[in-house]
């Protein structure tokens, strides 16, 4: 599907995630599906949890034993291809990059979108981090139902906006 419409298949998405048992703590999920010359995720990770290697075209790999889920790599990725995910009871918690206006605010409910841009649910905004170090990419923490772990990718304005 990726080659036809730019949307990865469910199998491709799942292949980027570690086992659910690892997601009891936040972990970076990198959805780089093609080899391209890029490495800001590797160079920005203060824990050396992301490895690309000598060939800058190599797809990044996350060492989940080193990843703390801090989200620094999320805001440094020029392709917006990294999220942080964790599971807490029946909820999936995501840290996502966000570069649009208006900006969500803590405790608001926004539309939760899948990779095709369709609304799949509502997402509760848990936090909005916006600092100069993030180079205009906000780090939004969103809570959705755990059933959307492999479907959710971003948020869209609530209908009333």
Overview of this structure, please?
Helix content is 13%, strand content 31%. The chain has helices spanning 2-5, 10-16, 40-44, 72-76; strands spanning 27-30, 50-51, 61-62, 82-88, 91-98, 109-113, 119-129, 138-145, 154-156. Strands 1-4-5-8-7-6-9 form a seven-stranded antiparallel β-sheet. It has a two-stranded antiparallel sheet with strand order 2-3. β4 and β5 (91-98) form a beta hairpin.
Helix/strand layout:
Elements: H1 2-5, H2 10-16, E1 27-30, H3 40-44, E2 50-51, E3 61-62, H4 72-76, E4 82-88, E5 91-98, E6 109-113, E7 119-129, E8 138-145, E9 154-156
Antiparallel strand pairs: 1-4, 2-3, 4-5, 5-8, 6-7, 6-9, 7-8
Supply database-style keywords:
161 residues; 7-stranded antiparallel beta sheet; 9 strands; alpha+beta; two-stranded antiparallel ribbon
- What is the helix fraction of residues, given as a range? 10-25%
State the end-to-end distance: 32 Å
- Briefly note the structural class of the backbone: alpha+beta
List the secondary-structure elements in sequence, H or E.
HHEHEEHEEEEEE
Strand order of the largest sheet: 1-4-5-8-7-6-9
Give the total of beta strands: 9
The description of the largest β-sheet is:
7 strands, antiparallel
């Amino acid at each position: 599907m990726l080659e036809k419409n730019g949307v990865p298949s469910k199998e491709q998405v799942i292949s980027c995630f570690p086992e659910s048992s690892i997601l009891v703590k936040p972990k970076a999920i990198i959805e780089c599906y093609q080899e391209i010359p890029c490495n800001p995720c590797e160079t920005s990770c203060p824990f050396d949890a992301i490895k690309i290697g000598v060939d800058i075209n190599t797809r990044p790999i996350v060492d989940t034993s080193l990843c703390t889920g801090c989200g620094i790599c999320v805001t440094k990725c020029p392709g917006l291809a990294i999220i942080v995910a964790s599971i807490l009871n029946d909820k999936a918690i995501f840290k996502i990059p966000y570069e649009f206006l208006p900006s969500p605010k803590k405790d608001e409910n926004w539309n939760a979108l899948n990779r095709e841009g369709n609304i799949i649910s509502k997402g509760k905004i848990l936090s909005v981090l916006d600092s100069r170090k993030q180079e205009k990419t906000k780090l939004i923490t969103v809570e959705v139902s755990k059933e959307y772990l492999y479907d959710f990718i971003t948020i869209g304005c609530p209908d009333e906006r």
